[in-house]
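Lab meeting, item 3. Inverse folding demo.
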C-alpha cells in the first residue's frame, strides 16, 4: 500500500484534495485491480500474507504489527490442548506479559 495526496470529487461535484491509499484488490478469477481509496472511507480491509507458510503466534508477534487478523489454519501439535483451533480467525490487538 502507498499513502499520498489525491484529488477526489465530492457528491456535490466539487473537487477536493484528500489523503488516499493505493492498494490492490485480489479477485478470484480476474487479475488484481488497482484501487485508490480516500482514507476517510470506512470498511474492513485485510492485508494478506503472500506466502503459504504457517505461522505460530510467536512468529506473528515478531513479524506483523497489531492489531491484525489471522486465520487459524490448524491445531498446534506441540500443545496437548490447543483451544485456539476452535476459532476460524482471531484478532490480535496487543501483547501482555504476566509476571
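The presenter then showed the designed sequence:
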Amino acid at each position: 500500500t502507498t499513502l499520498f495526496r489525491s484529488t477526489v470529487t465530492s457528491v456535490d461535484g466539487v473537487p477536493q484534495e484528500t489523503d488516499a491509499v493505493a492498494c490492490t484488490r485480489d479477485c478470484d478469477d480476474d487479475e488484481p485491480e488497482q484501487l485508490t481509496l480516500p482514507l476517510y472511507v470506512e470498511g474492513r480491509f485485510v492485508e494478506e500474507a503472500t506466502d503459504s507458510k504457517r505461522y505460530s503466534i510467536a512468529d506473528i508477534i515478531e513479524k506483523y504489527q497489531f492489531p491484525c487478523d489471522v486465520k487459524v489454519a490448524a491445531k498446534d501439535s506441540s500443545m496437548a490442548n490447543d483451544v485456539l483451533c476452535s476459532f476460524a480467525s482471531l484478532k490480535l490487538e496487543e501483547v501482555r506479559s504476566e509476571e
